[in-house]
Design brief:
heterodimer, A: mainly alpha, two-stranded antiparallel sheet, 5 helices, 2 strands, flat, B: alpha/beta, Amidase signature (AS) enzymes, 12% strand
């Protein structure tokens, strides 16, 4: 079972120890190092204000209940993910894509595409005769 | 022969030889779906008329003496995140509940040219985000081996449909294990091909540097035959590779005398259920006795694969899912009529489920100013280190063996309140996606409770031939794949 990763209801310091830590557990030295890691975290804990800011960036209108839930859950996940920050990656290039060396250009020739009415058939409020999507007011209002 | 117990390959042969009609096979599949789907909830949508129409065409072609494709008359189910023209694609999300795609995915064109009969679309985690199929807007799929257990996710409906003998084949998509993990949970074969092997044109994007389409089957030979149909470069997907596509099934010789299998003992030592470990050791021993050589390997960065994966996939998802805004397609909130911005945010709040929102939020956060370097860029660098681990391992071995999951399938509801615990279960599957490598989960045993346990093999980039050969040799030496759930 998942006994190496106890539930996230544990106290914060214990929680850091309990993740997939690269440092051998159960030694005083590693405990000391983890305390340092904990109190000098590069990223502070997540607050409700952070969650509201992210939700606005992501165009999500969250309920109060969702804001509280996500603040706790995202803080847990981020705290767990912080372990990657301890890895020495100096001089290591980033891998954004595993076959990025491949040539992807094609000849710039027009090809058949969907007719407008089919392309717009799924729109909640389309004006296909004008070739437009109707939306609420963009500026002001 | 009982047609629903037969493999795709034998169904195709029987149809070609005139011992079975495609129409009868299709009817049997549709009847089976009708009788078990109430218990399993594996299908979101079944199009019986379309399927029977296509099956009738196969029968007419055969009667006329026309050539039949390699999957002629074989019923297949597609995960509900792949487009079939005129058939709803929902991604098990409220935001796409009524979306009817105006075009076919490339895999759909390839399957239908090969004669396969698409019977319908299978339930999955919303936008393929989940490991238990509990994130579907249409309710969870249940495991055919034990209805109170998860079928795995995100392609849980496809895995359950194949295990329950509804169809001999199904397609899933695998971003961090979403084919292999449900295959393990449901006791079937699940193959994630190399990144770039199969076109994603017409697959709803989740994390574009990780997503890959692949087959579920009840034998390695069927998975191999299906991959030969699916694979190949596609001008509609610039990420597909210009690699030759061999006849994968022809390479299944049963011989592994020349094969060196990498065993990452240290990585597999922690947090693994005893019964899973026992099944893993048994599978390794089976292959050793068949002639393969076991080689201990070290994957020092594999233990970081879960955090790296969740930083990368959520970042990509937050960008990919920006397109669902209530304008071009899908659901639009009726509550907001006054401003465009309010319409966007209301639509997205009402249309997306909790896990999708959580991942969009996490991805937006790790890409935002001040956190990009510490989280996203760092994750991409560790991804490079992980790839190097595998590159080094593959200098010494031909395949790497791991369990597919750390535990047998858990109970529905067991982990829904703690997303981090759910994510940790992906430890053995996410590496293949981060490194782009092909991986396969095959039946590797059963727990004391009769729950399936998977055995996973990973191969070199674009070397599915060797991967499938080893998986097939394991299958030839075991009986696990012959068991069926008593549903």
């Amino acid at each position: 079972m998942q006994n190496a990763h106890p539930a996230s209801t544990a106290a914060p310091v214990v929680k850091v120890v309990a993740t997939f830590t690269p440092i051998a557990p159960a030694t005083w030295r590693s405990h000391f190092e983890l305390c340092i890691l904990h109190y000098h975290r590069e990223v502070p804990s997540l607050t409700i204000a952070d969650v509201e800011r992210i939700a606005a960036l992501a165009q999500l209108e969250l309920t109060d209940e969702e804001k509280h839930l996500f603040t706790r859950q995202l803080a847990d996940i981020l705290e767990y993910a912080e372990q990657v920050q301890a890895i020495d990656t100096s001089g290591v290039p980033a891998t954004a894509h595993v076959n990025s060396l491949q040539r992807t250009e094609r000849d710039d020739e027009p090809r058949p595409s969907l007719p407008t009415d089919e392309a717009m058939a799924n729109a909640p409020d389309a004006a296909p005769e004008a070739g437009l999507f109707r939306v609420p007011r963009v500026i002001g209002g | 022969m009982n047609v629903l117990d037969a493999t795709a390959t034998s169904i195709r042969s029987a149809i070609a030889a005139g011992r079975l009609s495609a129409t009868d096979v299709c009817r049997a599949a549709l009847d089976r779906i009708t009788s078990v789907n109430g218990s399993l909830n594996a299908f979101n949508f079944v199009d019986a008329d379309r399927a029977l129409g296509r099956a009738g065409e196969i029968d007419r072609r055969r009667a006329a003496g026309d050539a039949l494709g390699p999957l002629a008359g074989v019923p297949i189910a597609l995960k509900d995140n792949m487009d079939v023209r005129g058939m709803r694609t929902t991604a098990s999300s409220r935001i796409l509940e009524n979306f009817v795609p105006p075009y076919d995915a490339t895999v759909v064109r390839r399957l239908e040219s090969a004669g396969a009969i698409i019977v319908g679309k299978t339930n999955c985690d919303e936008f393929a985000m989940g490991s238990s199929n509990e994130n579907s807007a249409f309710g969870p799929v249940r495991n055919p081996w034990a209805l109170d257990r998860i079928p795995g996710g995100s392609s849980g409906g496809s895995a359950a449909a194949v295990a329950a003998r509804c169809v001999p084949l199904a397609l899933g998509s695998d971003t961090g294990g979403s084919i292999r993990q449900p295959a393990a949970c449901c006791g079937v074969v699940g193959l994630k091909p190399s990144y770039g092997r199969v076109s994603r044109y017409g697959l709803l994007a989740f994390a574009s540097s990780l997503d890959q389409i692949g087959p579920f089957a009840r034998s390695v030979a069927d998975a191999a035959a299906t991959l030969s149909v699916l694979a190949g470069a596609d001008p509609c997907d610039a990420t597909t590779a210009n690699e030759p596509v061999p006849d994968f099934a022809a390479a299944l010789t049963g011989t592994v005398n020349d094969i060196r299998i990498g065993v990452p003992r240290e990585f597999v030592s922690e947090g693994v259920d005893d019964q899973v470990r026992c099944a893993y050791d048994t599978a390794l021993d089976t292959l050793r006795r068949a002639g393969a050589t076991l080689v201990d390997i070290d994957l020092p960065h594999a233990k970081y694969a879960v955090p790296v994966y969740y930083l990368v996939c959520t970042a990509e998802a937050s960008s990919n899912l920006a397109r669902y805004d209530g304008v071009k397609y899908g659901y639009r909130s009726t509550a907001a009529k006054d401003s465009l911005k309010e319409m966007y945010s209301r639509t997205r709040d009402e249309g997306f489920g909790p896990e999708v929102k959580r991942r969009i939020m996490l991805g937006t956060y790790v890409l935002s100013a001040g956190y990009y370097d510490a989280f996203y860029l760092k994750a991409l660098q560790v991804r490079t280190l992980l790839r190097r681990d595998y590159d080094q391992a593959f200098e010494r071995v031909d395949v790497v063996a791991m369990p597919t999951t750390p535990t047998p399938p858990f109970k529905l509801g067991e982990k829904t309140s703690d997303p981090l615990q759910m994510y940790l279960g992906d430890i053995f599957t996410v590496s293949a996606n981060l490194a782009g490598l092909p991986g396969i989960s095959v039946p590797g045993g059963f727990s004391n409770d009769g729950l399936p346990i998977g055995f996973q093999l990973m191969g070199r980039m674009f070397d599915e031939t060797t991967l499938l050969r080893v998986a097939d040799a394991h299958e030839r030496s075991t009986e696990w794949h012959k068991r069926a759930p008593s549903l």
